[in-house]
Amino acid sequence: MHSGWELIFFSVGCKKRVLPDVYCTEMNAKEYNRCVRHLGDDLYRFALRYANLSAAAEDAVQDVFADLWEKRNEVEAGGARGWLVRALYRRLVDMHRHDEVVRRAQIDSEAAYRQHDNYELRDSLAKALATLPEQQRALVLLRDLEGYEYAEMSRLTGLSEQQVGVYLYRARKQLKKQLEDYK
Q1: Predicted structure pTM score
Q2: Which end of the chain is more exposed for a tag (fewer CB within 10 A), N or C?
């Protein structure tokens, strides 16, 4: 999908330079670049499904990677995935609340969906997901599309595991009701 996140990250307002190891006590540049390579596509896919705009998704992912680089002394390399997902989730919620662009925009990936046999189902699902409250939509995406466990979703969102289960149940019930016409 988006190989080359390092190039995207460093091409926007950041000059690529080699930093001495003195400045990288917890996470060094090599570990950071490994995180970018291994997690960039997954974070982008989650952001794209949440925001429905490829440009907004790329911006959000790039912003959290920039934040990770700035806070690399505070984040251990082994905990970067959780930190990135949590930061991305919060960034996307903020974007949704403060940007009218998300409400006015259409899915940039329409052409890719049209090539697929299940275009109508994907379109119906995207529309149904868009009607869910933002927290329910995020939980459905984290669980059903990204495969996160309840405990991890609880930690990322600040909800109890029971709340996660209740919100997922309500979201799935609403999606099922909206997609009944598709059958």
Answers
A1: 0.48
A2: C
